[in-house]
Design goal:
The chain is of the alpha/beta class. Among the domains are: 83 residues, Conserved hypothetical protein from pyrococcus furiosus pfu- 392566-001, ParB domain, CATH 3.90.1530.30; 60 residues, Arc Repressor Mutant, subunit A (Orthogonal Bundle), CATH 1.10.10; 47 residues, no CATH class. 48% of the residues lie in helices and 14% in strands. It has a six-stranded mixed beta sheet with strand order 1-2-6-4-5-3, with helices on one face. A two-stranded antiparallel ribbon has the order 7-8. A hairpin with a 2-residue loop joins strand 4 and strand 5. Helix 10 runs parallel beside helix 12. The chain starts with 13 loop residues before the first strand and ends with a helix. It comes from Halpernia humi.
Length: 294
């Protein structure tokens, strides 16, 4: 397998050194800028859950599935930690933390928060978003952090990074893709445009169908979008054409002659039941039909 974890940062990720682990706790400490806004590898032994974590139940099967995904692909989205001396408290990502332990990992990629680091983090993230070597998932993660951790509105974020709000929204939507698809975007196997086509399908099963078709048939983005339309509107089974029995054909002609309008009889295959359709072009023809009925 390719080095999946290499995709987690492309130069942003770094092993947390023993020096920074012990000496950097505040945004004003020397070297703080190396931690804030970057992705670091942190030993699982140094991480502990947040005691005030509102989530108290973790589905074991879902954790096992996530652990299996992590074994295959690594941790796609870093967890967020707050530095507490030489240890780290989980701010978000406890499911990924637990699943990583189940998967046998020794460390996980993480964002590090320090005391009073709000302004420093915002500057680091805004600067980071301008990098040309970021993949689409890393860009989306950075947008998400600016919105959630810094508390920027989409309008403020749009102004800060010089991007349309729709661009930011479409970028963040990529984080709703499955880990397998996100990893394919990171590795360059498919593009962000492919990802946007996939996420436009609401059902995960259909997303998986389209993803596999993009890979196996090497579809470009335009072709993937066309497949989306096909999947959203599956072909209806053609209706079976029923040939009218002779006695119904005769009845159809007789009624047409009597009413002086086009008459169509639609019948079941057995010819035992059906319906009669009277075709009139104007009010006069309708009155003509009603006159015969009365």
């Amino acid at each position: 397998m390719k080095d999946k974890k290499r995709a987690m940062g492309r130069g942003l990720g770094a092993i947390l050194s023993a020096e920074s682990k012990g000496s950097i706790n505040n945004a004003t400490d020397e070297g703080a800028e190396k931690l804030v806004g970057n992705i670091m590898e942190v030993s699982l032994e140094d991480i502990y859950p947040n005691a005030t974590q509102p989530r108290t139940y973790f589905d074991e099967k879902a954790l096992a599935d996530l652990a299996q995904s992590i074994k295959s692909l690594g941790v796609i989205q870093p967890i967020t930690l707050r530095k507490d001396g030489e240890k780290f408290e989980i701010i978000s990502g406890e499911r990924r933390f637990r699943a990583s332990k189940m998967a046998g990992l020794k460390s996980v990629p993480a964002y590090i928060r320090l005391v009073n680091d709000q302004e420093l983090l915002e500057m680091a993230l805004v600067e980071n978003i301008q990098r040309e070597d970021l993949d689409a998932i890393e860009v989306a993660l950075t947008y998400q952090r600016l919105l959630e951790e810094i508390g920027l509105t989409q309008e403020n974020l749009s102004q800060r990074v010089g991007k349309e709000r729709s661009t930011i929204t479409n970028s963040i939507r990529l984080l709703r893709l499955s880990p397998v698809v996100q990893d394919a975007i990171r590795s360059g196997e498919i593009s962000a445009g492919h990802g946007r086509a996939i996420i436009s399908l609401e059902e995960e099963a259909l997303q998986d169908v389209l993803f596999k078709k993009i890979i196996t048939q090497k579809l470009n983005v335009r072709q993937a979008e066309q497949e989306v339309q096909k999947l959203k509107k599956p072909h209806k089974k053609p209706q079976k054409i029923v040939t009218l029995p002779n006695y119904l054909k005769k009845a159809e002609r007789n009624l047409s002659d009597i009413l002086d309008v086009k008459v169509e009889i639609k019948s079941t295959a057995a010819g035992k039941k059906g319906k009669i359709v009277l075709d009139f072009k104007n009010e006069q023809e309708l009155e003509q039909i009603l006159a015969h009925i009365h």
